[in-house]
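Running this now, will post back.
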Amino acid sequence: MIITNSIANFGRYCMFMRRVFALPDRWRVFGKRVLDEVVKLGVDSIPLVLIISVFIGAVIAIQMQLNISSPLIPAYSVGLATRDIVLLEFSNSILCLILAGKVGSNIASEIGTMRVTEQIDALEIMGVNSANYLVMPKIIAFVCFMPVLGVLCIATSFIGGWLVAQFTDIITVSRYVYGLQALFQEWYVWYGLIKSLVFAFIIASVASFFGYYVKGGALDVGRASTNGVVSSSILILLFDVILTKLLLQ
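Update: finished.
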């Protein structure tokens, strides 16, 4: 039963995406909506990203230093490990899991509310492709802005580790900074940004799908929002494994 429902939902999702990625009827309106969604989904997420990144960067640096006590391991390994953890996982996978809760629930609840209040039906009656009009700007805006959030996350996480080195005696600043620079691989940055683009598309499209097909009232909108966040999180973890295998082999 679960497999059957999953296949059916995947088919509906594919048909939904076909409607979403049609050519907009009015490009000027589409461009304005994209800019509005950039502010609502991307810019408004910056404070959350900065706060979380500072603390996570600090925690990673502290844990690395406390667990690296062997004299055979160079002291700069703390900065190196912090850098690689942030670049490979935190700035893309973990960050997107967090944003799935904020952005995904926002999208699902907004579109779901429009469905139960019959605003989407009104758009359809006027001959507007409601899926394209409502969903495509959200997907384009969030996917385009996600690399900005990823870069901010990386920089702020490094600053968090630097603050630990600056204001504690756990590790010196010079060793931490040297560790950030040591054995740097540029591909890790591109790897993280590629994953973040895929995850951003998953969050926006899956949340929109669950919100668009809500049936019922306010209680069902909340349920659709929860289902959208859970499904997005599962798909993010699944594609994290797939992309890691494809991009780092």
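Residues 28-247 form one domain. More later if anyone needs it.
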